[in-house]
Amino acid sequence: MFDSGATDHITGNKSLFSSLSSLDNLPSITMANRSRVSAHGVGIVDLFPFLSIDNVLYVPGSPFNLLSISRLTKSLDCVISFTQSSVCLQDRSSRHVIGTGCESHGLYHLRPSSHIGAVMESPPLLLLTQLGHPSLAML
């Protein structure tokens, strides 16, 4: 899930990490219910074969996998666009779509797509659809 209020990427699912390290100075996290919990590690999570997120905090017991919007825009140098039903991550320089997601019950979830990462080979109409543009017939 994308979280505009999160300062760090967080997951409670240890199996998501491709690399996980325990450090002495890991931060404590204030959860949404105002409880404070300690991170037990930091590492890399492979979201997709072509997209890895580093500096993800492992917080056992965290019920959510949270992606910090501010961290994503800085680390991936991307633009994140939201509509009422979807989200799109796009590389700022190449304008390639990095990832897409959908809204469910007020939360935006990143979802895998077979088209992402192969945008250069995508037909123009598919690319326009992925970016949320209207069809050519509507223009």
Overview in brief:
This protein is mainly β and 139 residues long. Helices cover 10% and strands 42% of the residues.
Task: Report on this structure.
The structure is a single chain. The protein is mainly beta and 139 residues long. The protein folds into two domains: 75 residues, no CATH class; 64 residues, no CATH class. The protein is 10% helix and 42% strand. The strands form four sheets. The protein has a four-stranded mixed β-sheet with strand order 2-7-6-3, covered by helices on one side. The longest helix has 7 residues. The chain is globular. The C terminus is likely disordered.
Which descriptors apply to this entry?
single chain; 2 domains; four-stranded antiparallel beta sheet; 139 residues; four-stranded mixed beta sheet; 2 helices; mainly beta; 42% strand; disordered C terminus
Main sheet: strands, sense, barrel: 4 strands, mixed
Q: Nearest-angstrom radius of gyration?
A: 17 Å
What is the rounded distance between the termini?
33 Å
Spatial sequence of strands, sheet with the most strands:
2-7-6-3
What is the domain tally? 2
Assembly annotation: single chain
Structural class: mainly beta
Number of strands: 12
Helical content class: 10-25%
**Overall form:** globular
Q: What percentage of amino acids are in beta strands?
A: 35-45%
The helix/strand order is EEEEEEEEHEEEEH
The tally of helices reads: 2
* Mean pLDDT over the full residue set: 81
Low-confidence stretches: 114-139
Topology:
Blueprint: E1 2-3, E2 9-11, E3 17-21, E4 28-30, E5 36-38, E6 41-48, E7 51-58, E8 67-68, H1 69-75, E9 78-82, E10 86-91, E11 97-104, E12 107-111, H2 124-130
Parallel strand pairs: 1-8, 2-7
Antiparallel strand pairs: 3-6, 4-5, 6-7, 9-10, 10-11, 11-12
